[in-house]
Amino acid sequence: MTGVLERAGLRVSVVICAYTEDRWSEILAAVESVHGQTLPAHECLLVVDHNPELACRARARLTGCLVVESTGPPGLSGARNSGVELAGGDVVAFLDDDAVAAPDWLERLSTAYGDENVVAVGGLVSPAWVQPRPGWFPAEFDWVIGCSHSGMPPRTSPVRNLIGANMSFRRDLLVELGGFSHGLGRHGSNAAGCEETELCIRAGAARQGAIVVYEPRARVDHRVPPARGTWRYFMRRCFGEGRSKALVAALAGTASGLSAERSYVHSTLPRGVWRCIGELLRGRPVAALRAVAVVAGLSAAVAGYLTAGRPPRPGGGEEDREGAGGTEMTDERPRRPARTATLRFNTSKAAEARRGPRWVDGSSAFEAGAGAAAPFGTTASLRTSVGTARLRPAVRRAAAGRRPLPEGAVPQRAGARLAAVLPFAGPVAALALWVVVLESRVVLARMTDFGLVSVLPGAYWAALAVLTVSFVMLVRHREASAVALAAHVAVLLAVLHATPAVLYGTLRYEWAWKIVTVTDFVAGHHGVSLAQADPSMVAYQDWPGFFSLNALFTTATGWATPLSYAAWAPLVNEALYAFPLMLIFRSLSADRRIQWTALWIFYLGNWIGQDYLSPQGFAFFLYLVVVAVVLSRMLRPAGEGRFGAGARRSLEKRCGGRAGGVRAGAVVVVLCTVAIAVSHQLTPFMVFGAFAVLAIFRRLSQRWLVAFAGVVAVGWIAIGARTFVSENLPVFYDALGHILQNAAISKYNAGQASADQLLVGDADRLLTLALILLAAAGVLRCLRSGRWRSMLPAALLLVMPAGAVFGNNYGGELLFRVYLFELPFLAFFSAVFLAERGGAVRARARLSTLRSRAAARRARRPRNAPGWLDAARGLAFAALLAGFVVSYYGKEKSNYFPPAEVHAIDQLYSVAPHGSMIISAAGNLPWPLHDYQDYVNYLFTTDTKATVRSIEQHPVTVLSRDLAGGRQKRYLVFATSDAAIVNMTGAMPRGDYGRIERAVLASPLFHVLIHNSDVVVLTLATTR
Predict the structure, then answer these.
(1) Per residue in 840-892, pLDDT tens?
(2) Cβ neighbours of residue 919 under 8 Å, at least 6 residues apart?
(3) How far apart are CA 985 and CA 990, in angstroms?
(4) What CA–CA distance (Å, rounded) separates 960 from 974?
(5) What span, in angstroms and rounded, lies between the C-alpha atoms of 676 and 756?
(6) CA-CA distance, 301 to 279, in Å (whole number)?
(7) At a CB cut-off of 8 Å and minimum separation 6, what does 514 contact?
(8) Residues near 149 by Cβ (< 8 Å), separated by ≥ 6?
């Protein structure tokens, strides 16, 4: 295909525009790449944009390249137009001054011009990063750096517009169209653009059958300096692109001006987000930042589009020059030209240079003065296209019989777009601040006993504050957009629960490591093993449902281990909870404000940390699904003693008008109940209790579910979990009926624990107490409003979990689990209390007592909350948020495992033979990923008080004896995370852990096997 241009009698001119000497080496490389083409160019023009020093330097150094200065206003459009004006070829190709063309660039571009309908051809622009590409920078936004993005077609295809760094046009068409519009071009390093987009749109519409072609084989490499790989440049460029798109839409109409953007937003960006999610689940945390960048970039572009000024006023002058420079556009309305303007060139370039361009408007002609040197197309093309585009709304209004808008008025559609986007400003701002936190250097090693709270920068708290204020202002409106409210909740979950996953780089929380090890065992052995070296792991094997499901998921997806996605489990679990929770809240109240407020409060109250990859997190989700189905499909109407035909019809009406809705709900409940029974110890009895209390108060339509849940729970304990039950049966008998003993929390040794941790414990209790008090006030409000019958199921499910204190203490964590199962209804009644007094809960009950129809209509009108209620709701949210952050993040010093510690423990288990004993203070270590069942763990702080006291007094003697005892190999481990939990909880007097470690290291009786900044592993010196 070489020589298509020659055979067609066409010649190609290459135009390179430059404006700064800072790119001198790049300019030389660009010119050299043009000279090295397999298809020689007719000429190469370097257009210098108002920089005489650069022009002189280029004339002195460059050979075989015509160096000219731009005669237009400053900006890329003016420089390109000057190049077209002087070009002698039939085709003009444009190459950026910081781009290098591939040797066959012109040859590949030439192949398409064999078709006479092709008016423009462009190619692939590949990024050439000076420094490594930032991991957060999404390929879908490579247009930000002037390159081809991932949504471009992979093969030769017709497109709407080309990329400015690599494009070509037929020169006669450029002359006919008047060149590039100056109001859209770049000036220096400003973020404006889209002049090539607007020109391609005009080119495609100028001639019948005209085609703009994208040829990806015509490749150029575009240099990307480090300054363009920053969040600041990314957001500024996206915002500028949005403003430019608004001007393009005004000039060319939204149908043409935004056609490619619609496909990009609807197709390319969602695919990019899903790809990021897939990478995230495969253990690449930086993919989360790419997903955030996609959302943030789109939001910035939309914001720029909505806030863009009007197109520059026709007639050139200072306003037009400011537009070219990227400053604020003028707000004056363009005037419609009297006649259609047509641009014409003189055939003599010398005459053009002396007199400037000329355009003829009917019988009159305008000629630029000698000093004006106005570039071609500055006035005529902009006046014609702007006037036509801006008069379209007025023409439509006149055709519809409506009065035209007054001078200076903003069309209603622009205001509606702005109103639709404003609710998203808070989440976008919070996302941007959060990204700043993730990009900053958070020094985790400086973490104190106050946890992650002690090292998070101010931008993190600012993000939460902005998001909270935005949510308070939005949820006050009864007609608030559900999408905007969901965006607030999604950002809240990301900021609260994705932060540790991104910052740490390792899996947090000791028990999460244990879950991974058990899942690996089940996947590797295709089943469970009841013979466990560690007694604490028997319960996991006796309730294997969750682990089997995870093993199946891991095997099906091809991941080597759940460690690839376990760090993101808190975020995923919390997001999954939202679906059944919203169904529960919708079943209890029709007021959208109460529903979303309850969801917000739930997330601020869920501080106990059971959302990691765990059977409890999985079972709790299924419990919420069961409750949601029951409340929405199987709840007997209030006030009916028997479930008669009328009640059944009412129930079927709520379930979609057919009894099949109840049956489908029953199937879901049965499946979830079975899955819960084989996955967790406590949750099956919570399901049974929920069914029982609703049946006792005659609110459950399917009373057979009570017997079914009881049989499934007890049956699995008697059959599947008999090993665990038989070993712990005496403990169960001793705890039965001892309420105070079961409600006790043995979390801290108050006399020895860290003062910061005692403060965290106080925050736990205060947050729980605050929610209980808010919920109690909400219950009282329901009673006073006369809606206690409709709210009775929620009240029953609120108090039901407390009955668990009669059975067992659940390892000292029973109250935490009781609070977890009460939390959805604590959040709901708290939202009822914080709702407007004229809200749905109370207004409906009083509607029948209103004396006039006018009063009834006023009561039905959507009303917004008064200012004092907004302030009260904001204060409540702020207090709950502060309590959550302290409670949830306050234990992170012991939950965080530094990479050096993870590596050292992995080394230990790789050299320790099966059957070895691992001795540590509290066992707060990353567990082995393989063969955990073959190791024994001895935690000396959990031994008798006499043993712990002897270790404190004589550490070398006692620990050396422990290492020497028995036949198996024994190892002693000291780690920063283990020291953190010992000091924070007061398992030993503060400072004793470090003193014991120093004494052992100084003793010749021990040999150091592994030693780094976070871990020391020792054995007896005599056993080397």
Answers:
(1) 443 333 334 433 444 544 444 444 445 666 777 788 888 999 999 998 998 88
(2) 938, 940, 959, 962, 963, 970, 971, 972, 973
(3) 10
(4) 14
(5) 37
(6) 25
(7) 537, 540, 927, 932
(8) 139, 140, 141, 142, 143, 268
